[in-house]
TrEMBL record:
Superkingdom of origin: Bacteria
Stated name of the protein: CHAT domain-containing protein
Ranges for domain CHAT: 628-855
InterPro entries xref list: CHAT_dom, TPR-like_helical_dom_sf
Lineage of source species: Bacteria, Bacillati, Actinomycetota, Actinomycetes, Micrococcales
């Protein structure tokens, strides 16, 4: 939420000793404490109450109104928003009754802020419209320019929180360009402008804006400085400057605490940053702490807002039951508090979570349509679009095509002027409506246009986490398009479409359809074409790189291999198979069946890696073999490939965790996308020389493994358990032709860029490795779970392997599960002998696996779980 008004600084206005302040002095003070944010709340409260008593004695209405406004400001700083609203209502009535136009205008601006925080956006806009019409030319009132600036700032905040980011940015810039700008106004406008710029990924400009806000806030007191530091922290995290951003968060927390300001807002912003990093448990915890803090302070509205944040993160993390329960509880709380807007938002979370979790009530479509109408009237654009699309889904599920089309049309119309995620939702609505009208090609055009809009936005984002999360907005567009094309189009076109949503956070490449099919598709609403002319302007400077697909060039790169690219639609899997002479689409089975077998297989392998007796190992082995056979029948047998064919497999979703080498008799290499595999084929020709062998600390057999490998690479650079610091390893990897890491690995499934390997001075995360650009030509990761990349919505995949391949590594060998430390040495020695002889990773691993004694539990696990990735 945009910062609507910062609290004041620590500068004190000392009472003149020995005499009572004159009326003029007191009025100047009362104007200044709110407009310039120059006093601390305790001092303002004492002087405001004194001024109120004086005004009542002397029947001085102007003094009374301004004292009420200042006292309301104190309660607002303390998050006692209802008390502030009551005081401002009284002040407006008095000012209007006594025709104090300039004072009434100032009070209305203050009330507009409070109304926004209470969810009354329409009332806030009415107050601002009235304030901008009032003159501001009294003797003691601020000059006209300052009054207009404050009103414009308030309106910009209103636009910001309603999702009208273009209008908000324009308004903030207008405020900052205005004459005679007060410090408090400049800090708020600069801080909020930075937030808008960050939303559209203009991070350099955002940081410049927030740096100015921080500098101005340094002398204005802790309650202005802390939010500015917090905003800077959030922007730095989004811009990929994680360490610096976390230091700013820590500093903001200290400033809040030193000033005695509640930490609820801090935890709220921290939750947003953790969500951006895909650290979802941390995000849920931070939002929960914010909720608890606000409840402890008796601030039910802010507790509602924090609770909704927590519910949305639960929804994002796939905890649909938890999100539905949280939404239901928040809806009841909002109803008791008579917070209509928050009740409606909580209803959307509750209903969407239930729908996604399979427990939704299709008869709720009418209720959600009513919610959508109320949100439109309240000016809450983003939530209104969500509501219309959700209402369309519910109506569609119950077979009510007429109402579904109406809801989708309204959602598409409202989304035209929104931010990128909102516009993508509008494209989803338009595509689903096209399908209901049996206009398959129209649905594909809407999906194409939405994916292009999203690609421009994603390409401008600075970190792979943000790009992967952005791709999630287009997951349904990709699925809809694939569902249409695989029934009616050629394998080549289906493959090109699948590549539209494959690991683009890493590859930064957008394959395109033929030129005749890529024109921008306008949204059609009630028979009229609505085109957003500024869709491409929302992300200036973004560069979307396109490559045109050619099956002939793909076959040339494959050089006799067979490509198998998998996709999913409506819970079922399909594959496009490309060999040297033909391409074809293969229908596979339900994805859930594969997921069930895979889950059981991983459990059995875990038991075999640490067996508790011969009987337990035998039972686990039997279970593993049953699951492998089932997976092979589901995923490989239908493909019609030869037993000795070398496969290049591009998985999707849960299939990234499948042990593909154990399902096919011939060599297998994996890749996040066919585009990225083709890049590795080019990088495989790199002429680097030199080897690096790394032994991590506290790993049984690591030193022995490295010593044994030195017989294969006598000139290798060796980093033992004491020398293998993060800096030393990164430097060594950059120049290596082949590197081997024998280290403990730690998988962070919810945020794979924070998966890590243990080194002499601590953990080296995937994010740090990626940021350093350390990419040897070939890398062997003899670490637990190092090959277990994690799939995200939108066919993104993040982890050690995909990160290395995107940075220039042409071949990787890694394991999807726990590795038996000592027994893995023989596999590694056999692998490296073949690599040193010039074989590719896939063929070397295939040969090395053939030498493993699979009769032992550890041997079977190593045979099953290691996979090759890339073309080298």
């Amino acid at each position: 939420m945009a910062t609507s008004q910062s609290a004041p600084g620590a500068k004190a206005h000392d009472l003149a000793l020995g005499r009572e302040e004159t009326r003029d002095e007191l009025l100047i003070h009362l104007w200044g404490v709110v407009d310039a944010h120059e006093a601390d709340p305790a001092n303002v409260e004492a002087r405001s109450r004194s001024a109120l008593e004086r005004a009542r004695r002397s029947r001085d209405v102007e003094l009374r109104v301004l004292a009420l406004r200042a006292l309301a400001w104190v309660h607002r700083v303390r998050r006692e928003t209802d008390v502030a609203r009551a005081l401002l209502d009284e002040a407006v009535r008095l000012a209007r009754r006594h025709r104090l136009a300039e004072v009434e205008g100032a009070v209305r601006v203050s009330r507009a802020y409070v109304r926004q925080e209470l969810g009354d956006l329409a009332g806030a806009r009415r107050d601002l419209d009235r304030a901008l019409r009032e003159p501001a030319s009294g003797v003691r009132a601020p000059d006209h320019a300052r009054a207009v600036g404050r009103a414009l700032l308030a309106r910009s905040v209103l636009d910001h929180n309603a999702g009208r980011l273009v209008d908000a940015e324009r308004g903030y810039r207008s405020v900052l360009d205005g004459p005679d700008l007060q410090v408090g106004t400049a800090v708020v406008a600069g801080n909020n402008l930075a937030m808008v710029l960050a939303e559209r990924a203009a991070y350099a400009d955002a940081l410049r804006a927030v740096e100015l806000a921080v500098r101005l806030a340094q002398d204005a007191g802790p309650a202005m400085l802390a939010p500015a530091l917090q905003t800077r922290a959030w922007i730095k995290v989004r811009a990929g400057r994680l360490s610096s951003g976390m230091r700013d968060f820590e500093r903001a927390s200290g400033v809040y605490s030193e000033a005695g300001i509640p930490l609820g807002e801090y935890f709220t912003e921290y939750a947003d940053a953790m969500t951006d990093l895909r650290l979802l448990p941390e995000a849920v915890a931070a939002a929960g702490r914010a909720e608890d803090e606000f409840e402890r302070l008796g601030l039910p509205l802010l507790a509602l807002e924090a609770g909704l944040r927590r519910a949305r993160v639960l929804l994002l993390s796939g905890d649909f039951d938890g999100a539905a329960r949280a939404g239901a509880g928040l809806r009841r709380a909002a109803q008791q508090q008579r917070r209509d807007r928050w009740r409606d938002r909580a209803t959307l979370v509750e209903v969407e979570a239930a729908l996604l979790g399979g427990t939704g009530d299709r008869d709720q479509a009418n209720e959600v349509r009513r919610v959508a109408s109320r949100l439109v009237r309240a000016g809450d654009l983003s939530a209104a679009v969500d509501a219309h699309v959700l209402a369309g889904r519910l109506a569609e599920a119950r077979g009510d095509v007429e109402h579904a089309l109406g809801s989708y049309a309204e959602g598409a119309r409202l989304a035209v002027d929104g931010a990128v995620p909102v516009r993508v939702k509008g494209r989803i609505a338009a595509a689903r409506a096209a399908l209901l009208r049996s206009d398959a090609e129209g649905a594909v055009r809407q999906c194409d246009a939405g994916l292009r809009d999203l690609a421009v936005h994603r390409d401008s984002l600075p970190t792979v986490e943000l790009r992967a999360l952005a791709s999630g907005h287009g997951a349904e567009l990709g699925s809809i398009g694939l569902g249409v094309l695989h029934r009616s189009s050629t394998p080549g076109r289906v493959l090109a479409w699948m590549e539209r949503t494959r690991a683009l956070a890493l590859a930064g490449t957008l394959p395109v359809l033929p030129a005749s099919e890529v024109e921008a598709a306008p949204v059609t609403v009630d028979g009229q074409r609505v085109v957003a002319s500024d869709w491409r302007e929302i992300t200036p400077g973004a560069r979307t790189r396109a490559t045109r697909w050619s099956l002939a060039r793909l076959r040339e790169d494959l050089d006799g291999r067979v490509l198998v690219e998998l996709g999913g639609r409506d819970g079922r899997l399909l594959a496009v198979v490309v060999d040297g002479t033909r391409s074809r689409i293969i229908e596979l089975g339900p994805e859930q069946d594969v997921a069930d077998h895979l889950r059981a297989l991983v459990f059995a392998l875990r038991r075999m890696a640490n067996p508790r007796g011969a009987a337990a190992a035998a039972a686990a082995r039997a279970s593993a073999e049953v699951r492998l056979a089932a997976l092979s029948r589901a995923l490989v047998s239908p493909l019609g490939v030869g037993a000795d064919d070398e496969l290049v497999v591009v998985p999707v979703g849960v299939l990234h965790g499948v042990p593909w080498s154990a399902l096919h008799a011939g060599p297998v290499s994996l890749a996040p996308s066919a585009s990225l595999w083709r890049r590795t084929a080019q990088w495989a020709r790199d002429d680097r020389t030199g080897q690096v062998l790394v032994a991590g600390p506290d790993l049984v057999g690591a030193r022995e493994e490295i010593d044994a490998l030195r017989r294969t690479y006598p000139e290798a650079q060796v980093l033992g358990a004491q020398e293998a610091t993060a800096d030393a390893v990164v430097r060594a990897l950059r120049a290596a032709d082949i590197a081997h890491l024998a280290c403990h690995g730690s998988l962070r499934a919810d945020s794979p860029m924070f998966s890590s390997v243990s080194l002499a001075d601590g953990r080296l995360t995937v994010q740090e490795l990626h940021a350093a650009g350390a990419a040897p030509r070939r890398l062997v990761l003899a670490s637990c779970h190092s090959g277990a990349d994690v799939a995200f919505a939108g066919d993104e995949v993040l982890g050690f392997v995909s990160s290395l391949l995107s940075r220039g590594t042409a071949g990787v060998v890694a394991s999807i599960a726990a590795v038996p430390d000592v027994e893995v040495v023989d596999l590694m020695l056999a692998l490296h002998r073949r690599l040193a002889a010039g074989q590719t990773m896939a063929r070397a691993l295939h040969g090395a696996r053939a030498e493993i004694d699979r009769e032992t539990p550890a041997g079977f696990v190593n045979w099953c779980t290691f996979s090759a990735h890339g073309a080298a």
